Amino acid sequence: MRRIMGFVTIAALSVALTGAMAAEDNVAKATIKLSGGSAAAGLGVNWGGGTLTYQGKDYPVSVRGLSVGDVGLSKIEASGNVYNLNDLSDFDGNYTGVAAGAAVAGGAGATTLKNQNGVTVNLVSTTQGVKLTVGGGGVEMKLKEKPASAD
């Protein structure tokens, strides 16, 4: 029963994310894979990293931030598409948005985040442990290494 509810929740979240992207450039410019952890008691602290794949090249990414409403300890794996990334320098920033999803001993959720440069990231995540995400939050994502500029 829990598994069916999880699939229904993810399907509903996917429809919501698709609708949110309707007014945006709906062609993914990059992909992203993230992993990290969370320890929380009311106000969660998240940490992690990952890889942004842009124009056929991989760039290491650091992730840190706060999210409201987290409880417990979790391991997070997420992947998704990046939209409106016309220049790699636009990726770095503070991303805000609304997250939805719940996990008890494993689960999934979906999140849409947008930064000050208009870059939008749609993530689908899985968690291990106990975590309940109930509202908005913010995340800082930035490239660990700046690419060499073209001369």
Summarize the structure in words.
Helix content is 13%, strand content 62%. The protein has one domain (2-143). It has one helix spanning 2-20, and strands at residues 30-54, 57-83, 93-104, 107-114, 120-133, 136-143. The relative contact order is 0.23. Strands 1, 2, 3, 4, 5 and 6 form a six-stranded antiparallel sheet that branches. It contains one helix and six strands. It is globular and about 40 Å long. A hairpin with a 2-residue loop joins strand 3 and strand 4 (107-114). It is mostly beta strands.
Question: Can I get a quick summary?
Answer:
By secondary structure, the chain is mainly beta. Helices cover 13% and strands 62% of the residues. The termini are far apart.
